[in-house]
Amino acid sequence: MLNASLKQLSGQLAQKKISSVELTTECLDRIKRLNPEYNAFITVNEEMSLAQAQTADALIASGRSGPLTGIPVAQKDIFCAKGWLTTCGSKMLSNFVSPYDAGVIERFNAAGAVNIGKTNMDEFAMGSSNETSHYGFVRNPWDVTAVPGGSSGGAACAVAARLAPAATGTDTGGSIRQPAALCGISGIKPTYGLVSRYGMIAFASSLDQGGPMAKSAEDLALLLNVMVGFDARDSTSLQRDVEDYAGELQKPLHGLRIGLPKEYFAAGMSSEVELAVTHALEEFRKLGAQTVEISLPNVPLSIPVYYVLAPAEASSNLSRFDGVRYGYRAESYTDLADMYRKSRAQGFGAEVKRRILIGTYVLSHGYYDAYYIKAQKLRRLIAQDFADAYQQCDVIMGPTTPTVAFNLGEKSGDPIQMYLSDIYTSAANLTGMPAMSIPVGFGEKRRPIGLHLIGNYFREAQLLNIAHQYQQVTDWHVQSPV
Ligand code: GLN
User: Fold this and answer.
1) 315 given a catalytic annotation
2) CA 57 – CA 70 distance, rounded (Å)
3) Which of 117, 234, 378, 416 lies 20 to 30 Å from 73 when distance is taken between CA atoms?
């Protein structure tokens, strides 16, 4: 049952072959058995999950169910969920039980989905390996000595290890796509503004975007149909007509123009990744697509640009964690300033502090023009590169990550090496364009490899169509490590 697609599960629930309580119980049992090793979940609450499953069963019985009614979904611990501990992977929020639901959680609740637990993540979504979490690292189910990627490492592990049929993630520089690639699952970061950021704990507000993680493109489409929608409480939420993201899945790919940026097929990509990507492109040619070489000349600057802008926004966003209103407060202090200092010094981990320091530095008088403004100008040039490229192609493809999953501990002492994990992914956040990762093979040690697809604004349905067609003729997405 746990290898089934969401469509199959939904069908079985609708035909009453299984109940949501049974499906939820099966997931909870697996989590109980396997989570002690994987550490994919920070919080599991059987009582709350089962109560939602019962409500879903009643909805199904009354004939008012939708495609996700009764389906367990693992929620990244960055989404506030009423009555649930919501930590964002940080000691700073280790005692925070959210009094309200994020926009995304509201939408899943309204669809009758079951929150199966809150997934582990890098602290405040800062990281590429899930090793910065206050709650400990997550293991990659394909090889437990490897990282699952990050920051949505718990979500990727949960789906790959079949602890949950679907999950949510957030992506500021690659945090849905990179862990999806390293764990052999599919994930999509939608166009900026499509998914509400209300109640999604802020890292870098102009880059953050929530999105689904699941086995296949078809599953992602069903999840996206629930997640996307205008929310007046998010000032950058987009008001658009409702779209069916599963609507184009069956379209043939004949005549599709795939742009291959020469900057992505250059030094830095490992040979095993290159081989799998090359094979995937062959498959797309067989499906009737053609490939064209394109150039994105400013895109190699994405990482330095990202590591000026994301920390700048983070330093501002994280100033709210001061020990006063909610979250961790130091036990002893002499006065107010000392309380702020000690609460923040004790509540934040090393990577978060590093980002706050970088952010404060690039925003300070005298450096603002040299770093922050310069990075904003380059962000604009990177967006222009993509606009130019879309004159020649419909979709851009390349590897999601330069290498397969690295070993636990291998890069945690070297921030620059860690930051380079997002070398292919961060441009889509800087431009706000939709992008996804799908599994296309394995490296020598059977560690998964992801193909990266970047689309023009609002082309989610097209990306899902392209991925779905590939998944109709290949079976990487249905392979599981367990
Ligand atoms: N790895 C990147 C970072 O540490 C991106 C993280 C993310 O997308 N949340 O900032």
Assistant:
1) no
2) 7
3) 234
In 297-405, the DSSP E strands lie at 395-399
Instruction: Check 20, 175, 302, 437 and give the catalytic one.
Output: 175
Element (H, E) at 78: none
As a whole number of angstroms, the longest Cα–Cα distance in the chain is 70
Q: What does pTM read for this prediction?
A: 0.98
Beta carbon of 151 within 6 Å of any ligand 1 atom: yes
* DSSP secondary structure letter of residue 333: -
Which member of 19, 49, 65, 151 is catalytic? Answer: 151
The finding on whether 174 has its CB within 6 A of some atom of ligand 1 is yes
Instruction: Sort strands 395-399 and 257-261 into parallel, antiparallel or unpaired.
Output: parallel
Domain-wise residue ranges, the chain: 6-250
Q: Catalytic: 65? A: no
CATH superfamily of 6-250: Amidase signature (AS) domain (3.90.1300.10)
Tens digits of per-residue pLDDT, 24-73?
999 999 999 999 999 999 999 999 999 999 999 999 999 999 999 999 99
151 is catalytic: yes
State the DSSP string of 158-191.
Answer: HHHTTSSSEEEEEESSSTTHHHHHHHT-EEEEPP
